[in-house]
Design a protein that fits this description.
Layout: H1 7-19, H2 23-30, H3 34-44, H4 51-90
Length: 91
């Protein structure tokens, strides 16, 4: 049997259950069992649709990547400097 709720609608119901503090109330409102709510949450709960959460995640990833690029750039500079110095000593 197919669900009458789309994944997007399930996400909205899960969000409402988290924010309005009453899973039982939300389940009664939409005519679903609590086990259905928890099953949806296990399946879909990790998929945040809130744009601010997504933006924050991207900002953290961007910061991490910039830090890594800076480290690699420093390594490159040090290795290049060492290579140039070794070439100068050979002559």
């Amino acid at each position: 049997m197919r669900s009458q709720f789309t994944d997007q609608r399930k996400q909205q119901i899960l969000k409402e259950g988290r924010s309005k503090g009453g899973i039982e109330h939300v389940c009664r409102k939409y005519g679903i069992s609590m086990s259905t709510f928890y099953r949806w949450r296990a399946k879909l709960g990790g998929q945040e649709t809130d744009p601010t959460v997504h933006l924050r995640s991207l900002q953290l990833e961007n910061r991490r990547l910039k830090h890594r690029v800076a480290e690699l750039s420093l390594d490159y500079t040090i290795l290049r400097s060492a290579l140039i110095n070794d070439r100068g000593n050979e002559c």
